[in-house]
Amino acid sequence: QHAARLRRLYAVPDGDYVLLFVANNFKLKGLAAALETLAALLRESDTAATLLVVGRDNPLPFKRLAGRLGVSDRVRFVGHTEHIAAFYALADALLHPTYYDPCSRVVLEALSLGLPCVTTRFDGAAEAVDSAERGRVVDSPEDIAALADGLGQLLRSGLRDVTRTREQPRPARWSMRRHAEQVVALYERLIAGGVRR
Question: Is domain 2-167 in CATH 1.10.1740.10, yes or no?
Answer without folding.
Answer: no
